[in-house]
Amino acid sequence: MSTTDHKSGHDLRASALSLAYDSRRVITDLDLTVPRGAITAIVGANGCGKSTLLRGLARLLRPVSGAVTLDGRDLRELPSRHVARTIGILPQSPTAPEGITVADLVARGRHPHQGWFGQPNAADDDVVTTALEATGTQGLAGRRMDELSGGQRQRVWIAMALAQDPDILLLDEPTTFLDVTHQLEVLDLLAAVNRERGGTVVMVLHDLNLAARYAENLVVMRAGRVHAIGSPHQVLTAEVVADAFGLRARIVPDPVCGTPMVVPIGRFHQ
User: Fold this and answer.
1) 18 sits in which H/E element
2) Within 13 Å, how many C-alpha atoms sit on residue 41's CB side?
3) What is the number of other CB atoms lying within 10 angstroms of the CB of residue 93?
4) Do 175 and 135 touch, CB atoms closer than 8 A?
5) Nearest to 152 by CA among 102, 104, 103, 108
6) For the CA atoms of 1, 85, 55, 207, what is the dihedral angle to 10 degrees?
7) C-alpha angle with apex 25: 22 to 26, nearest 5 degrees?
């Protein structure tokens, strides 16, 4: 992860975007502009299209119609190396090559920045070391990925995404498999990437209260469309939560930071 200050000047947006798996339409005619240099959290009920949207923004899923553009150019028309230098993606269930060590996996994040012969240099080594340190995985560097716990593997994958040093970082449920302490550490790390480097971060999160704490911009999805978008204070209302999640809840100020906090009511506590 570079320590160079550089505000993300890249414009990533979806225009009339529709996405599908075979004949099953998941996203329909969606418009979205990702705020530059901000943290955006995509939230919504299971099956609403959050991960599918992220895959579309990352060029992992070809649009049925519409387009995703980077700086006004269709993402499908851009060279793969340029896209990889600009957009980093951590999918929901990444798979590591059999027997690969932590250090070797994280070093793969440097490939888009290396020449045709792919030889790492001292600067690449420094970035990898910094990414390992930032995620608390430097002590795992010599171990194989298949020896690690789910939480350890998740932090290593985040280290690889950071080593790629993209201007736009897309993460699908980056806190999966992590206990509460490591969830906060990872989100604090992403907040630091955003604040210190001005990098754009877009992440799918399940925890609405963590999303409200860490994201400046919330995208609430429902049935393959954007149901609400804006700051946490604008969109996390009892009405939106009921519509998007089918959940009766009260919205109160988070006692730690004042952001909206969703308190579910449930059947037995009226």
Assistant:
1) strand 12-21
2) 25
3) 9
4) no
5) 102
6) 20
7) 115
**Contact between 68 and 52 (Cβ < 8 Å):** no
What is the rounded CA–CA span in Å between residue 27 and residue 223? 8
Q: What is the pLDDT of residues 170-198, one digit of tens each?
A: 999 998 878 898 889 889 989 988 888 88
Cα angle for residues 9, 15, 17 (degrees, 5° grid): 125
231-253 exposure pattern, b = at least 16 Cβ within 10 A, e = fewer: ebeebbebebbeebbeeebebee
Instruction: Give, in order, the Cα–Cα distances in Å from 26 to each of 19, 41, 69.
Output: 6, 19, 19
| pLDDT at residue 262, as a whole number | 97
DSSP per-residue letters across 90-110 = E-SS--PPTT-BHHHHHHGGG
CA distance 270 to 268: 6
Residue 244, both tokens: 């998007």
Amino acid at 5: D
State the Cα–Cα distance between residues 213 and 254, nearest whole angstrom. Answer: 8
**Phi and psi at residue 240, in whole multiples of 5°?**
-65, -45
Amino acid found at 261: M
Whole-structure pTM value: 0.88
> How many Å apart are CA 193 and CA 197, to the nearest integer?
6
